[in-house]
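Figure 6 in text form: structure in, sequence out.
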């Protein structure tokens, strides 16, 4: 499997569990966020049911911020501003 094929599989093969190991700076966070967004957008998961594990607090913060930005971009009709934030636990908010 080529590098590009592996990246596409991480993003799109939502029916399988994957363990991704790679060196720093290779795009793991980008691929993981894309997979998480696809899981939510496809209806396979709610944001509140996804667990993503990182090794540092800084990496976790970056992952959370990137997911929030990407999920809003994916789920908003084009041309709209930011979503109204619901206080409910399952309304797509990232905690």
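Output sequence:
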């Amino acid at each position: 499997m080529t590098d590009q094929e592996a990246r596409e599989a991480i993003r799109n093969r939502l029916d399988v569990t994957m363990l991704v190991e790679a060196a720093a700076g290779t795009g793991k966070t980008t691929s993981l966020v894309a997979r998480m967004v696809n899981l939510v957008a496809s209806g396979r998961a709610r944001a509140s049911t996804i667990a993503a594990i990182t090794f540092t607090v800084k990496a976790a913060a970056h992952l959370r911020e990137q997911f929030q930005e990407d999920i809003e971009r994916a789920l908003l009709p084009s041309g709209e501003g930011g979503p109204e934030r619901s206080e409910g636990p399952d309304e797509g908010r990232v905690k």
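Caption detail: The radius of gyration is 14 Å.
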